[in-house]
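Narrative of accomplishments. A recurring question from our advisory board has been how the design workflow behaves on a single, concrete structure rather than in aggregate. To address it, we present the structure tokens for one chain from the evaluation set, followed by the sequence designed for it. No filtering or post-editing was applied between the two.
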């Protein structure tokens, strides 16, 4: 009986993580960089489109970005669109990325000397199916198709005063299922902080997500930013805000401890160790 109950729990968890196409996000592996620097963008495709493999990806290049040098994964070719001397878009095509496998598409570039953020809208193509990742990030809003965003900051400042992470852990699921990350972030500082992302060497891609019930069905959406008010905090827990770890590495196994770095709108970074537990949360 206990084994059957555990099996039902695993099935429920798997359905929660796979019942929505929102896992197909195109994101930047490195979400912060210094203005005027040489930068290598790794655009990560987390999933296919409605069960279909990714067959092409087009990324728009924002104004001010120059010296574009794209790289082609094995089996893929590259095409660019230019307006005069400026490259305005890069397309990878000719390959096939399985629907259940993440992939990375790389472009080296020179960043503009000023600005606060760059938005790289992306078009993911899966044969005749298209996913347009072009929604601009807005604080407190969940998005179906968020565009990849690079935050520009002259230097990464220390973590905002008063911010602290506690009770950090991952739920490692069997096979290729994504792992959920949970923690509490408290802000004892005098000013609000805006959480914009997370990264970990134990995850190929780590995203901010929020679980919600829609029409009686469980679903989840990517979240661009989470407000952490002064004197308050936010809880990332099952059924609400959580981290989504795609393409988990061997280090993410029950009993281990892995580092997670939280990133903030002003470029600040806060690192904490997360325990790794099994599917039952133990």
């Amino acid at each position: 009986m206990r084994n059957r109950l555990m099996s039902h729990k695993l099935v429920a968890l798997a359905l929660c993580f796979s019942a929505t196409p929102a896992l197909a996000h195109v994101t930047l592996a490195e979400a912060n960089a210094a203005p005027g620097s040489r930068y290598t963008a790794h655009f990560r495709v987390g999933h296919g489109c409605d069960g279909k493999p990714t067959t092409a990806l087009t990324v728009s290049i924002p104004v001010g970005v120059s010296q574009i040098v794209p790289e082609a994964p094995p089996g893929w070719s590259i095409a660019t669109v230019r307006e005069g001397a400026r490259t305005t878009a890069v397309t990878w095509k000719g390959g096939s990325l399985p629907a259940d496998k993440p992939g990375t598409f790389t472009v080296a570039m020179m960043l503009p000397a000023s600005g606060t953020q760059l938005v790289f809208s992306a078009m993911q193509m899966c044969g005749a199916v298209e996913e347009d990742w072009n929604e601009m990030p807005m604080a407190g809003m969940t998005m179906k198709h968020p565009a990849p965003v690079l935050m520009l900051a002259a230097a990464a400042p220390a973590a905002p005063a008063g911010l602290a992470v506690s009770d950090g852990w991952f739920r490692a699921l069997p096979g290729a299922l994504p792992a959920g990350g949970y923690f509490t972030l408290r802000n004892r500082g005098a000013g609000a902080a805006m959480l914009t992302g997370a990264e970990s060497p134990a995850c190929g891609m780590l995203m901010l997500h929020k679980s919600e019930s829609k029409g009686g069905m469980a679903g989840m959406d990517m979240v661009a930013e989470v407000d952490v008010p002064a004197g308050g905090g936010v809880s990332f827990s099952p059924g609400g805000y959580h981290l989504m770890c795609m393409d988990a590495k061997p280090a993410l196994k029950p009993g281990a401890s892995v580092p997670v770095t939280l990133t903030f709108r002003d470029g600040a970074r806060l690192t904490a160790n997360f325990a790794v537990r099994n599917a039952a949360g133990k």
